[in-house]
Design goal:
The protein is of the alpha+beta class. The protein has helices at 41-44, 50-57, 65-79, 86-112, 122-151, 171-195, 238-241, 267-274, 280-285, 298-318, 367-385, 390-399, 405-408, and strands spanning 2-6, 16-23, 26-34, 160-161, 164-165, 210-213, 224-227, 232-233, 242-245, 254-257, 334-342, 345-353, 359-365. Strand 7 and strand 8 (232-233) form a beta hairpin. The two termini are 22 Å apart.
Length: 417
């Protein structure tokens, strides 16, 4: 059996490679190898207190630190029976929207979009489409402005705590951020119209899409766990239906349903499961494109979410009233679960807290580890059905998922043969 190695994967976050196994002209298997050194975050959290954990998990990812922080906060507030008031919930939603805008924009414009123009990098694309990349920078700055306003800074925010925020922003800073968002919105809406004109490869694969759902709004932190196949679960039931498993070639754990079925998470899954929760005008804009099983159109799903997040954060900040930044709480022992929608998909945290308020057990399931098997499946079918260079096809199919390999490389056991 012959190996075709794509090493390393380019225009993805982190270090990985794809190996294609062929016999003659027949593709036999695909293996996504994640070889980035594991960082043992779950073990690093043992012995830490909640507010230390919140600062530590932000370091798991520079693109989606808020996702890790707010998922941990949700878990701890469950242990301590903290009931945060509505203004804190709304501000957290606005903060998470900022991360969606920033992270999606980074992927769309600098990692994904060059594929649709046959370019090797965004620098090559900028020679022909400088105005598009300038627009991407405008959107990313808009997302970062929200992160700075509510998180204290846009990389590894420092303003989140159990019970709320350390401090709330001034009225002057809110108005400054609102001005940035107002300027960014028409840019985003115009780009969506342009992106619909792109030539998307004719490729679809049946996929089980898992996300949050059944919430009053398009889900970010709210709701139950749902699937495109009709599954409906409380967040507390996650580990009854899903499991992690390890393969020797990857420093990231794979995930699957306990019956062995593969699933995927992310923007495409969220749109598929919650299309009816999007504003009517956004649904009309992408009619005929979304929802879909074509992974290449994940670019459109992310662009829709950028527009939604810009509108949502603007609406929240416009209606912000002065109030207390946090509520007090008493430390208790127990177990708490947090599940939210990171830009790349469903993110799971579970913590066991002892009487001293310290973490005894920590479990984190990142979105990219949940998507590993789905990525391999897309590459396998895509190479069999799409014309073109196999290596180019494989990389582009992987990039559709916006993998964050560093997030996924969080734990490993040593195999001895």
């Amino acid at each position: 059996m012959k190996e075709v190695r794509i090493d390393p994967l380019t225009r993805v976050e982190g270090l990985g490679r794809v190996i294609l196994y062929t016999e003659g002209r027949t593709l036999k298997d695909v293996r996504l190898e994640i070889f980035e050194p594991p960082r043992f975050f779950e073990k690093l959290l043992v012995g830490k207190k909640p507010d230390q954990v919140i600062d530590t998990v932000a370091r798991i990812c520079g693109l989606c630190p808020v996702a890790y922080q707010l998922t941990a906060v949700e878990a701890f507030e469950g242990v301590f029976n903290v009931k945060v008031p509505s203004h804190i919930k709304r501000l957290r939603r606005a903060l998470y929207c900022g991360e969606w805008i920033s992270s999606h924009s980074a992927h769309i414009f600098f990692l994904h979009l060059p594929d649709f123009f046959g370019k090797e990098s965004f620098l090559e694309l900028a020679k022909e489409k400088k105005e598009v990349l300038d627009a991407g920078i405008t959107l990313r700055k808009a997302g970062n402005s929200i992160l700075e306003l509510l998180g204290g800074r846009h990389i590894h925010p420092v303003n989140l705590r159990v019970g709320g925020f350390y401090r709330l922003p001034s009225e002057a800073k809110i108005h400054q951020t609102l001005s940035i968002l107002e300027n960014a919105l028409p840019v985003a809406e115009s780009l969506l119209d342009e992106f619909k004109k792109l030539e998307f490869p004719n490729f679809e694969r049946e996929r089980v899409s898992v996300s949050l759902g059944e919430a009053d709004n398009y889900p970010i932190t709210e709701g139950s766990i749902v699937s495109s196949e009709g599954l409906r679960l409380n967040k507390s039931e996650y580990e009854e239906y899903f499991e992690e498993y390890q393969l020797p070639h990857s420093t990231a754990l794979y995930s699957r349903f306990k019956n062995g079925e593969t699933y995927e998470v992310g923007a495409l899954a969220r749109v598929k499961n919650n299309f009816h929760k999007l504003p009517p005008d956004l649904r009309d804009k992408v009619k005929g494109h979304l929802p879909t099983n074509n992974p290449y159109k994940s670019l459109l799903a992310r662009m829709v979410e950028v527009i939604y997040a810009l509108r949502e954060s603007k609406n929240i900040l416009e209606r912000l009233e002065e109030d207390e930044p946090f509520v007090e709480y008493d430390v208790k022992e127990g177990e708490g679960i947090g599940i939210t929608e990171a830009p790349r998909g469903l993110l799971f945290h579970r913590y066991v807290i002892n009487k001293r308020g310290e973490v005894e057990v920590a479990k984190i399931v990142p979105p990219t580890s949940q998507n590993q098997k789905a990525m391999e499946g897309d590459v396998f079918l895509g190479i069999k059905t799409l014309n073109g260079d196999h290596q180019v096809t494989a990389e582009r199919l992987i990039r559709n998922f916006d993998p964050c390999i560093s997030c996924a490389s969080h734990f490993i056991e040593v195999f001895v043969e």
